[in-house]
From TrEMBL:
GO cellular component labels: plasma membrane
Name of the protein in question: Cytochrome c oxidase subunit 2
Superkingdom field: Bacteria
UniProt record similarity statement: Belongs to the cytochrome c oxidase subunit 2 family.
Principal subcellular localization: membrane
Residue spans crossing the bilayer: 43-64, 85-103
Domain Cytochrome oxidase subunit II copper A binding stretches: 114-251
Amino acid sequence: MTRILCWLAAMLVVPSTMANEVPLNLTPGATEISQQVYDLHMTIFYICCAIGVIVFGAMFYSMLAHRKSKGAVAATFHESTKVEILWTLIPFLILIGMAIPATKTLIAMEDPSNSDITIQVTGSQWKWHYKYFDQDIEFFSLLSTTQEQIAGAEAKGEHYLLEVDKPLVIPTGKKVRFLMTSDDVIHSWWVPAFAVKKDANPGFINEAWTIVDEPGTYRGQCAELCGKDHGFMPIVVEVVTPEAFDVWVAEQQQAAADAAAEAAASLNQTLTMEESMTLGEQVYIARCAACHQPNGAGLPGVFPSLKKSPYILGDVAAHIDIVVNGQAGTAMQAFSGQLTAKEIAAVVTYERNAWGNDTGDLVQAADVAGGSGAEESAPQEQPATNLKPVTEAVVVTVEDVVEEVEEQLSDLSMDELMSKGEQVYMAQCVACHQPTGQGMPPAFPSLVGSPITVGDVAAHIDIVVKGKPGSAMMGYGQMLTATEIAAVVTYERNAWGNNTGDAVQPSQVHAAKSGQ
């Protein structure tokens, strides 16, 4: 009995002295919230240990003190109101004692109000897309562990599968609000040191936040089984001083401007086949090999082979189109927002000439930007026979645009606006503001009786076209046509009992876009 009691006492002593050393235990983390989570965890653990000592102590004592060899005789009583009350009341009080600190911590974890920085985090198979709302910065963050390490051809690095090409950067001492969503399947953004683990669901936005006081590098992973390369989707957060963050923001904005200038200049560049194949291979290994494999063989039934594929050997324009715009209903993403025209041209050239495809096609950045096709590698001076003359393509495009604009600026009836507006709302707005327009305050305000939806029409149009800085409301001026914006504004102003009677026309939206 003495040895048993000593062993049980040791169970309480060891956690308190080794909690920070045992790797199987939680760690305090790097934020106030993560410390609260750790303290809550340890509190509940100690309560469970105390319950275990009492329950097992009583059980072992009863077994030893009232064993048959000592002549113990079982009691004959049955049921006891006092005992029934005690074993109901005591667990209830224990649960209340555990629920109070747990509730306080959970409420604190779910309060992203008064944030200093808002970052949209979008999961995409298999990378993260970060967008800083106030700093006008966005980029993709990809795994940077080499294929040689993954294949076992070279030794694993210190941060194997936990390193990226572009980490998320945030400042110390600032409240950073995260808006989580997804482009495809369910992902989960998890950084243990921040005590942040939030699902990124397609069509929905979840919120989380953190304040980190100590500069450093913090790592995490996608914590939701999101496909074959789920284990290759790391998260790296660089926490720097506010001064260093301001410098980084300026550098990123300058880099974006330089990249835009370089992309524009690349439209007038002509790469040789060797240059295009070298760049194309780099892009392919970084962006495409995860699905289609480094040898282009793909994973039949899931990701098609690129060897002798109809897309690869067929029309060049169709090949460019699927890389630029993706393919609906499949895992093939649109890379127009991820790669430059030069990089897309290079990777298309590489795919059309690697692994024995040998089409001889040499695609240039101008072909991608114009969507016109590719040049033949020999002779390079002559246009490919499958391309339309540039002048013809331009004339057709202008005519189409003029016809489309004239159609968009024509007036619509209230019924037409409401019908189309509901379609646009359900496709673009419902994830944040809900089908009933009630929103999810305070993150996403209600549109029912809102000052925006029942107030000045011009202000309503302006916020839909341009968005609202410092909030999750993005600008739809480049995403929706004038007709679609007019329709959704009309719908919001007349749905859910708003009933303003306003019928916004495309010409009003066009005037707002033009700054008239």
